[in-house]
Structure formats: C-alpha cells, structure tokens
C-alpha cells in the first residue's frame, strides 16, 4: 500500500519518504480503515521535528493522528457491522499511551490504518471525508477548553484567536451552549468568520484595546478565557479574568517557558488549565464526540474551510505543513 513515513526527525523535504509498506492487520479491539483523507495538525510537524517534550525514540513513524475513511475489516471483539461505515478518527499516532496498551507510531498518512475502535466515530451523512479528517485535534481541544471546567450557559467566554482552527470551534461550542462570547481576531475577514461561528462581540487585537472591550462587556471580568498563546497574552488575561475564573490554554508558541504574573493571578484566585488532547479523560472525550457529531449533523462543525492537496505533494517544501485545516486526499 502507499504510505508516507520518516525514520529520523527533520524537515519534511529531507526526511519524509513516499513509497509502499505492507498493509496493517487489525488486532483485537481494532478496525482497519481505508483512509480517504488524512488531517495535518501542528503536533504532527512538531513531532517530526522532535520539538515536543520527550524526544521521540521511534524507528519509523507514519505521521498524522487525524483522518477519515471507510472501515474495511475488524479485529477480534469488534462488531462486523462496522465494515462499510464511513468514519472519522483521532489518536492514530499516540505517543502518550492513552487508552492503548503501548505507544502507536502508525498514523493516517497511508492507504490503510489499523486503529482502536475507541478512536473512531461514525461520519454522519453529508459530512465529507476532508471535514472528518480536520476534526480530531482541533475539535477535541476546543471542546475541552470550553467545557472542562463546567457548563458555560450564562457565562462570558473570551476566545483568543476566535477565527483559528481551535478558536472558531470553541466559539461555536460556547455560543451553542448559551455563553456570551467575545472573540479576538487579527482582521475584518477573520472577524466575520468568528461572528458567523456565533461570537457576540468581536475585537481586532491589532487595532483595538482588548481589555477595554472586555471591561465594557463584562465589568466584573470574563468567566473563562480560551488561550491560543499563553505567553503573549497572560498579562492582559490576568487583567480581564474575573475572580476565580479559569484561563484554559492549549499553546504558548511565542515562549514555551513564559513568565507568570503570579500575584495578579493569585489575588483573584485564578485557575490555569493547560490542555492536552491526547490524554483527555474518557468522560470528557465521550461528551466531545457527542457534541462534534451533533455539530456535523447540523452542519456547524462542517463550516470550517479546509485546504486540500493530493498526497503526492506531501514532501513539497511549499505545502502548508502548519495548517490545522489541511487534509491530504488519499
């Protein structure tokens, strides 16, 4: 079968190989999926560059955690009725051992992938494989950021980067759950995206004062902040959050070791939640799958734009290796 893989870390053009590998066979509790689209996330290129905590010790890695396709076979203990179903999947590459007996190093950048049934969900009618492939990491991250600390109905939620892959979905989840949503964006076009997703208040952080708008919308402070860059925004987040509010952060790209305004946060009793999608508790993940499926059925989770390219361009230095809305069409 066709597949992409690498045996050492480095830039895609230097280390990624395209060729043929033997097709995997599903083990107990697994399904074999014929991959129709493979999703690319920041964690994939960071893993390939060995940029994450704990350098990879793999011999060979087939990349990409997310994908979508059709179940063509099942392993022992799995209902054969799954054969023929269209599905979306996540955690195909799993370096954390979540819900699996061992780390997994065979992702969706291949014609076939054998994956635990617990990492698979049916793709509703009308949802494309490209949409399904772009869900896993951003959708689970968005759901956890919004709901890991409880219901948000009637609360004011600030989503930093409200038109990004995670941010747009966070806006959708929070708005549909009855929250008053503020979204920060970097352009008018992105502001329209965030508004279409359900944001009630839009602020361009390049041209406007974000804390000023937050004070006008929520004089007592916002209840929860969904943070895309902890280091860049923690000072203003500390200013905007209400007493005993929560800052839920899924990245700190500008500085992985940020300085913390401890007393500004301690004075308010602020909670800081960091998010790791690969180790989400089962109950939270199950709730997320239900919400994502509902969104797909309604067409809301499907509105994110995807950038598509054929897998023969996988090694191209011009391909969008850092896009969370990118699907390889297999």
UniProtKB/TrEMBL annotation:
Transmembrane segments: none annotated. It comes from the Bacteria. Keywords: NADP. PANTHER family: QUINONE OXIDOREDUCTASE. This is NADPH:quinone oxidoreductase. It comes from Streptomyces violaceusniger. One of its GO terms (molecular function) is oxidoreductase activity. It holds the Pfam family ADH_zinc_N.
């Amino acid at each position: 079968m066709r597949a992409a893989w690498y045996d050492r870390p480095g830039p895609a053009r230097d280390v990624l190989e395209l060729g043929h590998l033997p097709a995997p066979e599903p083990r107990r509790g697994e399904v074999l999926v014929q991959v129709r689209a493979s999703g690319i996330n920041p964690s994939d290129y960071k893993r390939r560059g060995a940029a994450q905590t704990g350098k990879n010790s793999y011999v060979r890695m087939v990349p990409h955690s997310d994908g979508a396709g059709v179940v063509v076979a099942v392993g022992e203990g799995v209902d054969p009725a799954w054969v023929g179903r269209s599905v979306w999947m996540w955690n195909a590459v799993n370096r954390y051992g979540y819900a699996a007996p061992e780390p997994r190093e065979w992702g969706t950048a291949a014609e076939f992938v054998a994956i635990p049934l617990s990492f698979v969900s049916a793709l509703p009618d009308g949802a494309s494989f490209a949409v399904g492939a772009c869900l896993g990491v951003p959708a689970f991250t968005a759901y956890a950021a919004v709901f890991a600390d409880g219901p948000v109905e009637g609360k004011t939620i600030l989503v930093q980067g409200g038109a990004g892959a995670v941010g747009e979905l966070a806006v959708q989840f929070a708005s549909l759950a009855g929250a008053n949503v503020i979204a920060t964006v970097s352009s008018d076009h992105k502001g329209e995206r965030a508004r279409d997703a359900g944001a009630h208040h839009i602020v361009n952080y390049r041209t406007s004062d974000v804390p000023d708008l937050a004070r006008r919308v929520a004089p007592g402070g916002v209840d929860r902040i969904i943070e895309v860059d902890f280091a860049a925004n923690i000072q203003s987040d500390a200013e905007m959050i209400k007493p005993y509010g929560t800052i839920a952060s899924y990245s700190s790209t500008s500085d992985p070791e940020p300085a913390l305004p401890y007393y500004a946060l301690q004075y308010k009793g602020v909670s800081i939640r960091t998010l790791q999608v690969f180790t989400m508790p089962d109950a939270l993940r199950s709730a997320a799958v239900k919400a994502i499926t509902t969104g797909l059925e309604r067409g809301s989770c499907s509105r994110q734009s995807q950038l598509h390219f054929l897998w023969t361009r996988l090694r191209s230095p011009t391909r969008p290796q850092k896009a969370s809305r990118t699907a390889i069409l297999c």
